[in-house]
Amino acid sequence: MKKLEKFLQDHFEQFEIFEQENEYKSISFESNNLKEIATKQSKGFSVRSIKNNGLTFSSSSNYDLEKFSSNFLELSQYPISTNIQFPKPHKTSSKEVKIFSKEEFKIENDFFINNLRKNIKEIQKKFPDALCDAEYDLAIGKSSLVNSNGLKKETFESAISFYISAQLINGNDMLNIYNYLSSVKNFTTTEIEQVTNKLIEDLSIAQKIKNTPKKGCPVIFTPHGLYQTILAPLLVSFNGTNLSKELSSLFKKEGEKIFDEKITLLDDPFIDYSPSSRNYDAEGIQTKQIPLIEKGEFKSGVFDLKTAYDYGCSSTGSAGRSLNSGTFPSISNLVMKNGNQDISNIIEQIDEGILVDHLLGAGQGNELSGDFSANISLGYKIEKGKLVGRVKNTMISGNAFSALKNVENLSKEKETVYGSMSLPFLQTHQVEISS
Amino acid sequence: MNKNYKSIIGESLKLNKGDYKEIRIEENISTRINYNGKTRENVSINSHFGGSVRSMCKGGWGFTSFNDIQKAPEKMKECIELANYNNNPEFNLAKNDPTKISLPPIVKKDPRSIKLNDKIQVLEHYKDLILSEKSIHGCEIVYGDTERKVIFADSDGNEIEQNFVHVILRIAANSSDGKEMLQSGFSIGSLGDYSIVENLDKEVLDCVKKSVSLITAPKIEGKETTVVLDQILAGVFVHEAFGHLSEADNVYENERLKEILKLGTKFGNSDLNITDGASIPELRGSYTFDDEGTPASKTPLIREGVLVGRLHSKETASKMSENLTGNARAISYAFPPIVRMTNTIIENAQNTTEDIIKDTKDGLYVKNWYGGMTEHEMFTFSSGETYRIKNGEIKETLRPVKLSGNLFTTLKNIDGIANDLEINQGGGCGKGGQMPLPVSNGSPHIRINNCLVSSG
Predict the structure, then answer these.
(1) How far, rounded to the nearest angstrom, does the alpha carbon of residue B406 sit from its chain's CA centroid?
(2) Which domains, ranges and CATH numbers included, belong to chain B?
(3) Nearest neighbour of B50 by CB, restricted to A39, A61, A80
(4) Distance CA B379, CA B385 (A)
(5) I need a labelling partner for B48 at 20 to 30 A (CA). Which of A322, A354, B18, B380 fits?
(6) pLDDT surpassing 80 at residue A93
């Protein structure tokens, strides 16, 4: 790689080399039986360079540096216009968030296999006809970032996840529910048991199909449902790329009250053992907590160096990257402030309504406007304050901005979604149910 | 085949262990050019190289992928050890006559022969064309071409080298009324033909016009209604509504589903015929051998409304005692092959589109696509354009809609199939983390009754 550095020094004003080496392992059960154990190793690098306010990018996992350099020179004739400065070395803060554990790869395969088998058996005790898939996924990685301004960073990261799903077929009705956990380090037996028990509980309620309530009924979202339905399309507008391109409706609206007073949303990179935490971002910029919404007021989007330059602000330390792409703004851990009511209380007050948990087909529409529309693949019917079964062949649609403008209720309880978000249950009237 | 590869492959497969062993080596190089908003955002060339080995022992699999090809023989040992953790009933994998062959890519106007500068100039022109319209806020252009060489060998004696060149292009125009951002676009693709990227002025201007017309278009209220789908959206429909459940890996170990999806079961009306096949030539889902070395074929899935076939890998064909179809595909060396669609088509019937629309009193004409998804018998897909149909005539523009259905009722609700089959090659399919896999979908115009739609 020294040769590559020399080449870049000779031809460009600034450069950056990112190199990544990862190892993965997955142990998967399919239809109740062990199906496959897979391991993967990958290694590759990418380069960004700057000359005359133009940025060039290329990546490779094939270390033919001569070919790479000649391609790179050709590409540099068509640079992307920008004027960013790669960061200089900076002191690492004394208290670093924990993002690495190397122990998991030493655990015997039999431990994972037995654990998966045991949890599938638990489900089958209650539902003998259930067909279960279950999986452990492990990842460990090292990446290095070197730039022409003297920055040198080496990062070690790890991740582990546990996934379990069950399918029940009754006539032509197929019910499929899954649950999962993910972290930087291995889980306790109790944590895994909780995941499986929750799945068993959900299956018990969801087995019964109930009529969809009428349009205009109260709708509550589980933390997962809240992310999938409302927050995912909303966050498109917080992305620095869409803000800097004036594609986001939040463009230059920092400080404006746009949402309900109850909504406070934070991007927090400092949660120990969360797989999305980071001490510095993919460009080597120190991370920080970013208030996105505070009591309904739009505070900030998330930016990497380039989108920040285009928007006229500073990077928020939010750069993510994959080997094949340059950098892009990304959120680390999304945290929403909870409310003060127990979820059981919120449900108890509802005569007829829906608790939305999972959607099918979310995110395949005009997300820039905040619109959403999807089939409710798992939604519970609420009758007289109780969950009594699930709805089917039902769609939900609306707009994320409107849905968060008048929020009825936020729960006291929060749940971890996708291993990195901490969200409450939310009730809003501003959605449409059709069936 | 490269001599170095040959000795690595020989070394890896000669181990006297494992019921079945295979190795894949892949080289690929891709060019990407993107525009977003008003500017060019990316021009890059990415080159990748790697391999993987897979082995079956005790009725289950071990799989290992890596970048350092020299290590393949020792990775095969590791892979066999992993496979030995399985403890399932053993079975014989389906076999075909072993082949030794090397196949060049299918190309017409070869994108590899076009200078980077020329590619950029063409796209730059489309960008300017879009931005020249006043109410347009920005554009989104994604161009990609990929050259891929895949070498496959297995312990049954197959040694197959295949080469592919793919071209994809998406062009979209964003318009805005100052409050809301709206988008209209189109996606196209080809197997080895750069000329699809050229001479698109008419299509680009049309897309600009449609984008602007969305600003004033109303949203519909969610309801069940009659929908007429154009060829592109009907192609997405057949992929989502039926295609995924015809993939045998969803079925082969699920006794209840096997009963529900028994060959001979009626799923549609007598003019419904559905086919999938990689041997349909020169489409993005076309190839000669799949990623397990099985020759590609053309598989009838539905004939006169009745389920007559499904898509298989070696494992699912063996376990269901059905014929191999050549549908085991891996998106790259880093993934094991799984059962996938290739080119999926609803065949022409007798009606004309004109008659179908004339015969529709109240409904929606839905065209083009944003996306689609399937979860078991449920599916959703979304239109890129929507128009009202009133008393047999196409009326005003509406905002795009999402459509949702259920395999068991929606296929039977198709009550009109036209005779104007067209195939769209602009899509990619995702399954098991492998995305976007090149596929094509095709259909004539079709009409579906009582389809659940909502604005979105």
Answers:
(1) 20
(2) 3-214 (3.30.2290.10), 223-455 (no CATH)
(3) A61
(4) 19
(5) B18
(6) no
**Total count of domains within chain A:** 2
Whole-angstrom Cα Rg for chain B: 23
Identify whether residues A95 and A142 lie together within a single domain: yes
What's the whole-number mean pLDDT along residues A223-250?
96
For residues A311 and A182, state if they share a domain. no
**Whether A38 and B62 lie within 8 Å, measured CB to CB:** yes
This model's pTM is above 0.90: yes
Q: Is B269 on the interface with A (CB under 8 A)?
A: no
pLDDT of res. A365: 80
Nearest C-alpha neighbor of B108 from the set B177, B198, B232: B198
ipTM of the complex: 0.94
Q: Which residue has the tokens 């790669």?
A: A86
Q: What type of residue sits at position B28?
A: N
A contacts of B49 (beta carbons < 8 Å): 61-62
- Helix ranges (DSSP H) in A252-292: none
| Contact at CB, A169 and B400, closer than 8 angstroms | no
Q: Where in B58-117 does DSSP place strands (E)?
A: 60-66, 100-103
B295 touches chain A (CB under 8 A): no
Q: Helices A109-126 & A189-206, crossing angle to 10 degrees?
A: 30
CATH of the domain at A85: 3.30.2290.10
**Regions of chain B with pLDDT less than 70:** 1
Rg for chain A (alpha carbons), in Å?
24
Please judge whether B47 and A64 are an interchain contact, meaning their C-beta atoms are less than 8 angstroms apart: yes
Cβ distance A360 to B45 less than 8 Å, yes or no, reads no
Considering only CB atoms, B182 lies closest to which of A56, A173, A369, namely A369
Yes or no: say if B272 and B304 are a contact pair by the CB < 8 Å rule: yes
Average pLDDT for A93-118 = 93
Determine the Cα–Cα distance for residues A184 and A193; give it in Å rounded to an integer.
Answer: 18
Q: Say how many CB pairs under 8 Å bridge A and B.
A: 234
pLDDT digits 0-9 by tens, A270-322? 999 999 999 999 999 999 999 999 999 999 999 999 999 999 999 999 999 99
Confidence at residue B17, expressed as pLDDT on a 0 to 100 scale? 80
Helix (H) or strand (E) holding B332: none
Quick one: pLDDT at residue B1?
A: 65
Domain end residue (candidates: A182, A205, A228): A205
Distance, C-alpha B332 to centroid of its chain: 15
Cβ-nearest to B43 among A75, A174, A246:
A75
Range of the domain at A112: 2-205
A26 with A104, same domain: the answer is yes
- Cβ contact (<8 Å) for B40 and A113? no
